[in-house]
Design a protein that fits this description.
- The chain is built from six helices and 14 strands.
- Helix 4 (198-208) crosses helix 5 (218-238).
- It starts with 8 loop residues before the first strand and ends with a strand.
- The protein has helices at residues 37-44, 73-85, 112-123, 198-208, 218-238, 265-276, and strands spanning 9-15, 25-29, 50-57, 64-70, 89-90, 93-94, 96-99, 128-135, 176-184, 190-197, 241-248, 254-259, 291-297, 303-309.
- The longest helix has 21 residues, at 218-238.
Length: 310
């Protein structure tokens, strides 16, 4: 692996695919009233991956302002550094920018499709692929209002049950809705598995059913469960992935992929049980591994793997 001169090292940044935007959100002022999202995208896209652009009017002055959110902090610093040397212009007007004071702190995750796009942006098109390993096709539980059984009595919705029904799995393994494998393509392909639990998907559907534009019943309900199960499983997979950015004064930014432990013990247990029953796949995954695998590409295009104890 290439050695990095410590005196030349600026920063090592870890991105966890979360919604937090501390140090990544720029406030842009001095905009023309004719500025559009396309103008902002064109002006800032060369500095990095733009996660979100908000265009609004200042409540006090009525002037147009914008918030431009990047994926990494070093990308926002690039913009500020460029601004210090040469004032940027949009539609012939010089603009002003600084880090936004009001920053979002959130434990939530980005949408799975956006996570895939981010991986392709930093690692190259085709760097990752997604495959459905398992999808639960069993009939859905009888539709009754959340927490109310057929006798009109209130039941608690607990893990492993739905509408008060006992978990029918004799081994008390939570029933899975979907399993997806995210393959990281390198010198040695590594697969990170994510899964969704059926009772969690059904609970989420019951909670948000009133927010859908059309009734969720019958085949439509089943399709929605499968769609939500896939999305939850893919999100779970990206919860185990990290992007590591290394920036230095003389070298271009280098990006590495890291794997973190499975954040959901119930999913970890269900995945271990599933793969232990698939002898051909046992060697492809160690669900109980508590180590971090980092792959960094050197100048020769070869990849090396380090194991770092978490």
């Amino acid at each position: 692996m290439n050695q990095v001169d410590s005196s030349d090292l600026l920063d090592i940044e870890v991105f966890d695919f979360g919604l937090g935007d501390k140090g990544k959100n720029l406030l842009v002022t001095g905009l023309s009233s004719h500025t559009t999202y396309a103008h902002l995208q064109a002006a800032f896209s060369n500095f990095g991956f733009i996660r979100e652009i908000q265009l609004k009017k200042n409540q006090h002055t009525g002037n147009l302002i914008a918030f431009v959110k990047f994926i990494a902090k070093f990308e926002a610093r690039r913009v500020l550094l460029a601004q210090a040397h040469h004032r940027m212009e949009i539609l012939g007007r010089k603009i002003f920018m600084r880090l936004a004071v009001r920053e979002k702190y959130s434990n939530g995750m980005l949408a799975p499709q956006q996570c895939v796009a981010i991986m392709h942006y930093y690692l190259g098109i085709g760097a990752v692929s997604v495959k459905i390993e398992f999808s639960n096709q069993s009939p859905l539980p009888q539709e009754t209002p959340t927490g109310i059984n057929n006798k009109g009595k209130v039941d608690e919705l607990v893990e492993g049950t739905f509408n008060g029904e006992d978990d029918k799995d004799d081994e008390n393994v939570p029933e899975m809705q979907c399993i997806v494998g995210v393959t990281l393509k390198g010198s040695e392909k590594k697969v990170v598995y994510g899964a969704s639990l059926r009772h969690e998907v059904l609970r989420e559907l019951e909670t948000n059913e009133g927010n859908f534009t059309m009734p969720v019943r019958g085949k439509n309900r089943s399709a929605m469960v499968h769609k939500m199960g896939y999305s939850f499983a893919l999100t779970n997979a990206f919860q185990q992935l990290r992007l590591m950015f290394v920036t230095s004064l003389t070298s271009p930014v280098r990006c590495a992929v890291a794997e973190a432990p499975q954040p959901n013990p119930a999913v970890e247990f269900a995945l271990a049980t599933y793969f232990l029953s698939k002898s051909s796949l046992v060697t492809d995954i160690d669900p109980f591994s508590k180590q971090l695998f980092v792959e960094v590409e050197d100048d020769g295009g070869q990849e090396e793997e380090e194991t770092i104890a978490s």
